[in-house]
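FAQ

Q: What does a record look like?
A: Structure on top, sequence underneath. For example:
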């Protein structure tokens, strides 16, 4: 199988408040709203993340977004008012962990230029 894209969902308890939080995390407004309980962000060509109001599955989401310069991206996210709850480092790969209000985990990570 060759993956050419992804459409990953995150179950939340309240779509409207989740849109506010994920807009800060991603640094942009949703690309579109399929309906009143979903919002979709396009992170790159054929790569999407969406929130969906779904009380039965809320809080179990786990994902990581790989970026070219994770430390700089985390700094930009902090400027928008969100702080990571944890940081993991494995050699020269780091992941900063963010939790939304429902406990869903989104990591921002990637390879560092050099291990600190």
């Amino acid at each position: 199988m060759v993956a050419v894209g992804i459409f990953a969902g995150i179950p939340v308890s309240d779509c409207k408040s989740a849109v506010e939080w994920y807009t800060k995390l991603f640094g942009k407004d949703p690309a579109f709203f399929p309906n009143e309980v979903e919002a979709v962000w396009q992170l790159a060509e054929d790569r999407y993340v969406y929130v969906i109001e779904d009380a039965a599955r809320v809080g179990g989401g786990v994902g990581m977004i790989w970026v070219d310069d994770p430390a700089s991206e985390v700094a930009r996210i902090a400027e928008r008012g969100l702080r990571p709850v944890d940081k993991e480092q494995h050699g020269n790969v780091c992941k900063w962990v963010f939790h939304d209000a429902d406990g869903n985990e989104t990591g921002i990570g990637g390879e560092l230029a050099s291990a600190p």
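Q: Is there anything notable about this one?
A: The chain has a mean pLDDT of 95.
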